[in-house]
């Protein structure tokens, strides 16, 4: 992650919240989601002042985004090899849907466990890097 990049800073904060001296799994998870939002907003909905990960996922699904395996092959290459954006969307959606405490206190809902927060952070890293490297792209046609 780029130093000074908002998504990278948020992900570092999430990491510290999970693995630091006073761990807080719920804050780590929530901050991971914020890092994903920071990483994806400018690509998906740069003008949306109330952008959320859920809105981004809906846009990606509706617009049929894809994940470029090779983003820039140069002038001599035929065309980038792309796969359905579903791979990245599944990773993002699993983080978003598994955050069971995002709508406030719900009776019977437990706090986010360290294992859940760890899974979210570890899954977010490649997604954030893919957006940072512009490997997740809106369809051109």
Helix content: 40-55%
Structural class: mainly alpha
Q: CATH first level: which class?
A: Mainly Alpha
Structural domain tally? 1
End-to-end span in angstroms?
Answer: 30 Å
* CATH architectural name: Up-down Bundle
Strand order, largest beta sheet: 2-1-3
How much of the sequence is in beta strands?
Answer: 5-15%
Radius of gyration using CA atoms only = 16 Å
Order of helical and strand elements:
HHHEEHHE
- Mean pLDDT comes to 82
Q: What kind of oligomer do you see?
A: single chain
For the biggest sheet, the summary is: 3 strands, antiparallel
Report the total helices. 5
Strand segment tally: 3
Q: Give the CATH topology.
A: Four Helix Bundle (Hemerythrin (Met), subunit A)
Poorly predicted runs of 5 or more residues? none
Give the overall silhouette: globular
Structure report:
The structure is a single chain. This protein is mainly α. It has one domain: Four Helix Bundle (Hemerythrin (Met), subunit A). It has five helices and three strands. The chain has a three-stranded antiparallel β-sheet with strand order 2-1-3. Helix 2 (25-44) packs across helix 3 and helix 3 runs antiparallel to helix 4. The longest helix is centred in the N-terminal third of the chain and has 20 residues, at 25-44. It starts with 5 loop residues before the first helix and ends with a strand.
